[in-house]
Write a structure and sequence with these properties.
Blueprint lengths: L9 E5 L4 H12 L3 E6 L4 H4 L5 E5 L9 H6 L4 E4 L14 H29 L3 E6 L12 H21 L4 E8 L8 H5 L1 H10 L8 H12 L10 E4 L7
């Protein structure tokens, strides 16, 4: 059996309807996992790419929304991918936009991890968590104060949970995607000047593909990563090394 094989595992991927979440779900499926595609909107397009997958309606604007899932289902792999962003100058940033982003990007991540960990440890099962962090887990960014704070928090929570759960058979790691060619970055790629600036900074000389993140998530969920705990893996074409 390959060290990257996920047959017999059930993976829950949040925000699996499009972009990076969809690519992670598809990669998990190709590796043999049964995939639960969780999102606010339907995941029909994602499910068409899977042999063993199903949709779960999940709105993480309620940070506790996923908790009951782990009370009724055995989940072996959790990928916290769902996230939102709000943009405004910091001098004008409002409390509602702050709270909305922190609820989805950080509070929901922690309490979803907590529910997963409680269920796995209570049953004496091993498990793997992959949180989707960001380049802004390391950098400040501009005009995205709550997003930056939330993604710094994701990196910190990943390390904290690894410290507590590594000896209990639960791997907790994160991926920090670089500039990935998805619908969310289409405007940047269509802006000739901004696209040029970005590509000049990336040593690999190209935008990342969503599949680059998907394969990294499979790795961190697989037996091949059994001794990796608390890592934030940069999948950025070398952006942060520049």
């Amino acid at each position: 059996m390959s060290a990257f094989d996920l047959h017999g595992k059930r993976a829950l991927v949040t925000g699996a309807n499009t972009g990076i979440g969809q690519a992670i779900a598809v990669a998990m499926g190709k590796a043999g996992a049964e995939v639960i595609c969780a999102a606010r909107r339907d995941c029909e397009e994602t499910l068409e790419k899977l042999d063993h997958g199903r949709y779960l309606a999940l709105d993480l604007s309620d940070p506790m929304a996923a908790v009951p899932v782990f009370e009724r289902e055995q989940i072996d792999i959790l990928v916290n991918n769902a996230g939102i962003i709000r943009r405004s100058d910091s001098a004008e940033f409002n409390e509602t936009d702050w709270d909305d982003v922190m609820d989805v990007n950080l509070k929901a991540v922690f309490f979803t991890c907590q529910a997963f960990g409680r269920a796995a440890m209570g049953a004496g099962r091993k498990g793997a968590i992959v949180n989707i962090a960001s380049l802004l887990s390391f950098q400040g960014g501009i005009r995205v104060p709550s997003y930056t704070a939330s993604k710094h928090g994701v990196a910190g929570i990943t390390k904290l949970l690894a410290n507590e759960w590594a000896a209990k058979g639960i791997n907790v790691n994160a991926i920090a995607p670089g500039y990935i060619a998805t619908n969310n970055t289409e405007a940047l790629r269509n802006d000739a000047e901004r696209n040029r600036q970005i590509l000049e900074r990336i040593p690999a000389g190209r935008w990342g593909e969503a599949s680059d993140i998907g394969e990294a998530a499979v790795f961190l969920s697989s037996p091949a990563a059994q001794y990796i705990h608390g890592a934030v893996l940069n999948v950025d074409g070398g952006w942060l090394a520049r």
